[in-house]
Structures are given as structure tokens and as C-alpha cells.
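#struct-help
A.M.: can someone run this one for me? Single chain, 196 residues.
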Amino acid sequence: MALASLPAFAAAAGERTVLVMGDSLSAAYGLPPEQGWVALLATQLRSERPGWKVANASISGETTAGGASRIATELRRHAPDVVIIELGANDGLRGLDLVQTRANLERMIVASRESGARVLLVGMRLPPNYGPQYTQAFERNYTELAEAHGTALLPFLLEPIAMDRDAFQADNLHPVAEAQPKLRDHVWPALAPLLD
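D.P.: on it. C-alpha cells below:
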């Protein structure tokens, strides 16, 4: 190895990683990937927290079962220092069993923690037409898991834009490009303490 390349190698070796395990909301569905909140977060990290990078392992349509089945592989691949888990919306929209959803999220949290990573659990809320019993139990999964495992919690990813129809694409589910910076800015205060 040439001596001139040593500083670059040392910088790369010291790089720390935020791994995002999410669904279409984190995979920038319907948008160029660079316009999504995760890519915007990566840009912010580069400027405000040099030495940090983002690995986005989000997949559109992903459920908690899919995330739980992939978590070990992604942890090995990226060796993250922080894991953002943004999953569950597709479970809820499909009316899947909430006990299983909770177990899948817990499996991801435990695997991440056991790998040495800090965890930010990002919650979701469901439309009221799913009924109060299901929607409330769905939300409780996030708060109770965060409390039980001592993880950071962002209760509702879409909170800054939820009431603004213009912030969503025609499907009324996925945010437009103009809304993505608001999501990044909403995630940042929950994530920043985990980077210290």
C-alpha cells in the first residue's frame, strides 16, 4: 500500500454507519432515490457529522417479517453503529396479526442491540377506518417495545405532513419530494443523540 493512500484508508476504516431498515417510506417510493428522506439524511450526516454514512436497506412493500428475516444479513454486511427500524406500516395496512408484528420488531431490535448498535424505532399510525382497537394496539407496539428495550423512539414518521394532502403522491400514502426534507428534519432530533 502506498503511503499516500494511508490517510484515506484510515478515514474509511473509522467510518461509522447508520443502517436504515424500512419500507417504501424510506425507499423513496415513486421518487428518484436521492430525493428521499434517507438520502437527504445521508447528505446532512456528511456535512454535520463527518465520519458517518448511511446504508439504506429499505424495500418497498417490506413487512416486519421481511425485515426480521433480513436483519442478521444486513447487520453482518454493514456492521452499523446505529439502526433505524422503520417498519410496520405494511403489516397494519394489511391487517396482519399485531402479536406477530411486535415479535418481528422485537427480533430486529434485539439482533441490532446484540450486534452493538443503538436503535431508533420509528413508528407509524393507521387510518381510523381500521377501528380504534386495532389502531391503538398498533401504536402501542412501538411505545411498549421502545420502553422495554430502552431504545430511542420516534412515534410517527409522517407527523409533520400527515394532515397535508398536498404532501402526498396520488396514492395518498407516499410523500412527494417536497415533503422529504420535513421527514428528515423530523427524524434528526431523535437520531442525533445516538451519534455521540
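A.M.: thanks! The domain at 15-195 is CATH 3.40.50.1110 (Rossmann fold).
D.P.: also worth noting: The first strand starts at residue 16 and ends at 22.
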